[in-house]
Amino acid sequence: MLKYSKQTRLLLAVDCIIFGFDGEVLKILLIKRGFQPEKGNWSLMGGFVQPDESLDQSANRILKQLTGLEGVYLEQLYTFGQPQRDPIERTVSVAYFALVDIHKYEAQISDDYHAEWFQLKRAPKLIFDQQEMVEQARKRIRYKAAMHPILFELLPTKFTIPQLQTLYESVFNTTIDKRNFSKRVLATGLLIKLADKDKAGSKRGAYYYQLNMQNYYAKFQAFMNFIPNPDSL
Amino acid sequence: MLKYSKQTRLLLAVDCIIFGFDGEVLKILLIKRGFQPEKGNWSLMGGFVQPDESLDQSANRILKQLTGLEGVYLEQLYTFGQPQRDPIERTVSVAYFALVDIHKYEAQISDDYHAEWFQLKRAPKLIFDQQEMVEQARKRIRYKAAMHPILFELLPTKFTIPQLQTLYESVFNTTIDKRNFSKRVLATGLLIKLADKDKAGSKRGAYYYQLNMQNYYAKFQAFMNFIPNPDSL
DNA sequence: ATTATTATTGTAAAAAGCACAATTAATTTA
DNA sequence: TAAATTAATTGTGCTTTTTACAATAATAAT
C-alpha cells in the first residue's frame, strides 16, 4: 500500500484529567510517573495511542487501566501540540477529562500506579504542560456545568439535594441560597424523589434522589441555569 | 537524544472548516484535492503538521495558504482519530474552524486550490470523515453563537442590524422579531452606532454599527442570549 | 404626489430569577 | 422526658428579563 512519503510521523498520546468529588471538594486523580523522563513525579494518567485504536478507545483503555472503571463520563477536551512539550521526542497529546464517582473508584483501586486523589486547589506541580491541561479541564467543567447537568456524574446513584448543592458550591466556589437551589434543580425535572433518607449528614435526614435517566438523556443538551448570575465564568 | 522506543509514530494533519457569510446564507470554503487518494474530489483545506510547528501555527499556515488571510478567528474544534479514517495510512486530524469575512477573502483569492464557496446546506460530499467534521463544526458555532458574540467575525467591520439579524436567522434557521432582536443586541453594549447608513439594502437605509472592541474582548466569555428560547440547539 | 419598501421605535403581559425566614423532623443533651 | 441543637424543608413577594405585538418614519421609484 502507498504511503504519504516525505511527511514526518510523530507520537500521539492521550492524557486523562480524572475528577472526583468526596462530598467536600473537587479532586483529581494523579499518578507517580513510572518511566523517564520525569520518573517519580506527579502526572496525569496517560499513554500512547496504539496502532489499532481510536482516540476514544485509547482514553477508555487508559482510564480503565488506572481505575478499573468502564462506562464513566469521558469527553475529549483539547489537543496539545507545542513542539517542545515533551523534551524527549515530539509528542502530541489529546487530553480527555473524566468524571467519576469517587467511591466506585476506591472500591476498585489498583496500586500499580501509586495513584492518589488531590484537592484540585492543592494539587502538586505536574510534568510537561499538564498544569495547563488541568486548568483547561477545570474551566471546561465549570462552563459546561453551568448549563448542563454533568456534575451528577460525580455523585453516587442516590444522593441528596444538600450533597448536590455542596458539589455545585465547591465547583463554582460560591454559596447558593438553599431555597432557590432546590427549586432550580427540581424544576429541571431530572430528579426522582426516593422514599428513604440519608441520615449520615444530619439529624433530620435528607431525602435521597436519583436521576430520571429518560429526562437526563433527553434534556442533557438543553440550557438550564444551575448557578445564579452566570454572567461569566 | 533518547527516544520512546517501541511506540508507533503516525501522521498528524490539520483540517480547517472555513465559514463565511454572503449576506444570505452560511457558506463553507472547499477545495479540490490535489493529490491521491481522492484526488479531484471536494475536500476541506488541510495539511500535515510540520516538525517544528504547533497545532495553532499549522492551522494558521493552512488558512493563510488558501485564503491569504491572517489574524482571522480560528478555534480548535475536535481531534478525529478513527484508525481507518484515511485509507492510505493512519492519520489523525485536528480539526479547526475559522470564521472569515467572505469579502476580505474574495479580495485575496488564490486560485491554486480551485477553491469554491458552497452553501453549508448544499455542500457536496466530502472525503474521508470530513462530513462529520463539518457537522460538528456547524453544531459548535450554533452552540457558541447562542451565548457568545462570535458571529460578528463573519461580518465586515461596518454592518447594519438587519444584516446581523439575517446572519443569526440563517445560522439558527429561524426567524426573530425585529424589535426584540434589536433590543437584545444593543443591550449587550457591544455595538457603536455610526453616523452613516447602508443604502444598498433598502430605500430608507440602515445605520451602520461597528463593534466596541473594548467591550467585545472584555465580555466575550460572558453569557448573553442572542436567540430567543435557547432551550436546546 | 402616490406608492412601495424597509428601518426604527414602545409598551404591556408573562415568565424567570432573586431575596428573604419560619417551621419541621430527628438526635443529643440536660 | 423535656429542652436544646442541628440540618432539611417549604413559600411569597419583588425585581428583572423575556416575550408578544403594530404603528410610524425615511427614502426611492412610479
From TrEMBL, chains A, B:
GO molecular function annotation: hydrolase activity
InterPro entries, per the entry: NUDIX_hydrolase-like_dom_sf (IPR015797), NUDIX_hydrolase_dom (IPR000086), WH-like_DNA-bd_sf (IPR036388), WH_DNA-bd_sf (IPR036390), WHD_NrtR (IPR054105)
Protein keywords: Hydrolase
Domain Nudix hydrolase intervals: 9-148
PROSITE patterns, sorted: NUDIX
UniProt keyword Metal-binding, yes or no: no
Keyword Hydrolase: yes
A Pfam family of this chain: NUDIX
PANTHER family: ADP-RIBOSE PYROPHOSPHATASE, SLR1690 PROTEIN
Protein name from the UniProt record: NUDIX hydrolase
